[in-house]
Amino acid sequence: MFPSANLTVVTEFLLLGFSNLQEKQLVLFPVFLCLYLFILTGNIMIVTVIRLERSLHTPMYYFLSVLSVSETFYTFVILPKMLVNLFSVLRTISFTSCAVQMFFFLGFAVTNCLLLGVMGYDRYAAICHPLRYPILMSWRVCGQLTVSCGIGGLLVSLTTVNLVFSLPFCNSNKVNHYFCDISPVIRLACTDSDSHEFVIFICGVLVLVVPFFFICISYLHILRTILKIPSTEGKKKAFSTCASHLTVVIIHYGCASFIYLRPTASYISNKDRLVTVTYTIITPLLNPIVYSLRNKDVQLAIRKVLGKKFYLK
Fold this sequence. Notes:
- The chain is an all-alpha fold.
- It is built from 10 helices and 3 strands; from the N terminus they run βααβαααβααααα.
- It has a single domain, classed as Rhopdopsin 7-helix transmembrane proteins (Up-down Bundle).
């Protein structure tokens, strides 16, 4: 049912964000600002060091650098606007800007999911097929996989945004979130959106469940191969290359699945905002910490690039 003539067509949205916390927003601003600056600094450092240090010119670190670039833009789409809104009285965003924000957020988010799947395959190829690894993960293959992840993110994002913003919006324009996410926006549509939500749900299954299932299969093969390694040191070294990836995968897919693999009607604003903070801020924060700053190879590379005479702890 489409809006009648006496209904006001929405031309802008109001992002409620953390307005329910009131005075606590003054505390949230410096906290989120520091986290955002750490994300930017950490990811830029990762990309720079991998670029300059030849010993890190391997597929594993190549995909890590691509993930760092993607997560830098991923957070840039959301966090600056959120930080501004923490101090703003009028937290409006135009209809077009909301669609653009959702498009880029979903594009980079889907790209990250697919990249994590590719990184799982890279670990599988390195551990289970070490002799064929240079062929399985040649630079040409790495480039093709990266482009495929980007195109996949673009197509899913374009499809989702088109479905959401093809719906009519009238009267209510209050988005109960700190950015234009799918569930809080589509709930404002003044017509039945069940068919649109079903297609979006299928896209979510393809993006989250399929890569995660692929990662699980890869790690079952990896675990079987590691158990066959005779030395304890060899087992520890093989598993250490996977531990960081598994940590980020569990947090990222777990939180994203909680939000996107369920009906929009079950959206709970306060609880969902907390979970969303986890995968929009905490997960990108984990990338420089878990993947790199605690990685001895990267520590050594940072030391060489910066000319320091101490190890990062």
